[in-house]
From TrEMBL:
<feature type="domain" description="Radical SAM core">
    <location>
        <begin position="18"/>
        <end position="267"/>
    </location>
</feature>
<dbReference type="Pfam" id="PF04055">
    <property type="entry name" value="Radical_SAM"/>
</dbReference>
<dbReference type="InterPro" id="IPR032432">
    <property type="entry name" value="Radical_SAM_C"/>
</dbReference>
<dbReference type="InterPro" id="IPR007197">
    <property type="entry name" value="rSAM"/>
</dbReference>
<dbReference type="InterPro" id="IPR005911">
    <property type="entry name" value="YhcC-like"/>
</dbReference>
<feature type="compositionally biased region" description="Low complexity">
    <location>
        <begin position="347"/>
        <end position="356"/>
    </location>
</feature>
<keyword id="KW-0949">S-adenosyl-L-methionine</keyword>
<keyword id="KW-0408">Iron</keyword>
<feature type="region of interest" description="Disordered">
    <location>
        <begin position="298"/>
        <end position="364"/>
    </location>
</feature>
<protein>
    <submittedName>
        <fullName>TIGR01212 family radical SAM protein</fullName>
    </submittedName>
</protein>
<dbReference type="InterPro" id="IPR039661">
    <property type="entry name" value="ELP3"/>
</dbReference>
<feature type="compositionally biased region" description="Low complexity">
    <location>
        <begin position="324"/>
        <end position="338"/>
    </location>
</feature>
<dbReference type="Pfam" id="PF16199">
    <property type="entry name" value="Radical_SAM_C"/>
</dbReference>
<dbReference type="InterPro" id="IPR058240">
    <property type="entry name" value="rSAM_sf"/>
</dbReference>
<dbReference type="InterPro" id="IPR006638">
    <property type="entry name" value="Elp3/MiaA/NifB-like_rSAM"/>
</dbReference>
<keyword id="KW-0411">Iron-sulfur</keyword>
<keyword id="KW-0004">4Fe-4S</keyword>
């Protein structure tokens, strides 16, 4: 039976090849706030945001970063046999507030036991040169900036009370990528006022930006949010699972093959979720997405294959936008709210196609085990089937 993960460039696979071991992201609450909650932009926040700010809540329980780390890594070591970890500053907007606070928090991370990387979650309007420089200077092999872009459409961003526009998102992505940060863009399907084509236009917009990872979320309704009030008043209806799975299965083939898929659907806390009920069962949703991809004979990047590493344009082509800023494929138009003519982008760094431990002069991967070699063999076999994957010969 087909290994369902091979149709996508998933984070788990990327990290296994990168480090030769299972790597687990550890959610941390560093006690930051958000300008969209503290009254600077608004007090209500985004319509879907509850007072936890998408966090674990452990920070509110008074645990320090080190204590949270001990709790989570102990749990993951027991339940998932993980020994390597990425610190994920998840709650609220982690580059917001005094820069000394950010400096202090980032200073704690590199000495946490088992850490191999960091992911800093924030809003596009909360990053400036100084903050990006600080994050980019983290002495860790994997450093990601996770940006909540959500939509390419200014009308939607206003409707969900984001407090920034698509131009701010573009600036933040480009400024972070220019510093060598790996940018993970968050996108939401099922936003109020949007249809499927609007969502796919946002996917195409992200695809043209220098992003290295994407997280897809289906919009769900949590208690204590503005969206909950709209849902109760009959003003908002969440997507059905089948509609959501269909949208993601249509989005993935349009996404550059080297982009790391970090999430296929959201994962609401059971005690917060009001609707839709299917959001509780993440496995069923991801299984349906994989099933649709298989039924349709497609995979991530198939629709942009002529620019992909193994596509007709050859190994040199990495699916990067051409000079007009378009991805050089099906001629998608610019999304409303996006800059009409984005400037040309530099080629993505080499690690897009080549696991970094293979790069000349790179530090060898942390674990060179039989399991790690088995994963590489499995990956090489998958490469023979799916052109979005690229075999990496020894010595490259
Ligand atoms: S930016 Fe994030 S933390 Fe701030 S209100 Fe929106 S969802 Fe909540």
């Amino acid at each position: 039976m087909e290994n369902t993960t091979t149709r996508l460039h998933l984070l788990a696979t990327y990290l296994r090849l990168r480090f030769g071991a299972r790597v687990q992201k550890v959610p941390l609450d560093a006690g930051f706030s958000c300008p969209n909650r503290d009254g600077t932009l608004s007090r209500g926040g985004c319509v879907f945001c509850n007072p936890r700010g998408s966090g674990s809540g452990l920070g509110e329980d008074g645990l320090t970063l080190e204590e949270q780390w001990t709790v989570w890594t102990g749990r993951y070591a027991r339940t998932r046999n993980a020994g390597l970890f990425i610190a994920y500053l998840q709650s609220f907007s982690n580059t917001y507030g005094p820069i000394d606070k950010l400096r202090h928090v980032l200073g704690v991370l590199p000495v946490l036991p088992g850490i191999v990387g960091a992911a800093v979650g924030t809003r596009p309007d909360c990053v400036d040169n100084e903050r990006l420089d600080l994050v980019a200077a983290l002495p860790l092999p994997e450093v990601w900036l996770e940006l909540g872009l959500q939509s390419a459409h200014d009308a939607t961003l206003a409707r969900i009370n984001r407090g920034h526009d698509a131009a701010a998102s573009e600036r933040a992505v480009r400024d972070a990528a220019a510093r060598g940060l790996r940018v993970c863009a968050h996108l939401i399907a099922g936003l109020p006022g949007e249809n499927g084509d609007d969502f796919l236009a946002s996917v195409d917009w992200v695809n043209r930006l220098p992003v290295h990872g994407v997280k897809f979320h289906g919009l769900y309704v949590c208690e204590h949010t503005a969206l909950a009030r709209q849902w109760r008043a009959g003003e908002y209806t969440p997507l059905e699972r089948e509609t959501y799975a269909d949208l993601i299965a249509r989005a993935l083939p349009r996404l550059r093959p080297e982009i790391v898929i970090q999430r296929l659907t959201g994962d609401p806390a059971g005690d917060e979720l009001l609707a839709p009920d299917w959001a509780k069962d993440k496995r069923a949703t991801t299984a349906r997405i994989h099933e649709l991809l298989a039924q349709r004979g497609t995979w991530q990047g198939k629709d942009v294959a002529k620019d992909a590493p193994n596509g007709p344009n050859g190994r040199g082509g990495l699916g990067v936008p051409n000079e007009s800023g378009a991805p050089g494929t099906s001629g998608t138009s610019g999304a409303p709210g996006a800059s009409p003519a984005p400037p040309a982008l530099a080629a993505p760094p080499a690690w897009f196609a080549v696991p970094p431990h293979r790069l000349p002069g790179a530090t060898p991967r942390l674990r060179d085990t039989e399991q790690a070699r088995a994963w590489e063999t499995e990956y090489a076999a998958a490469c023979a089937t799916f052109p979005h994957l690229r075999p990496v010969p020894d010595g490259e």
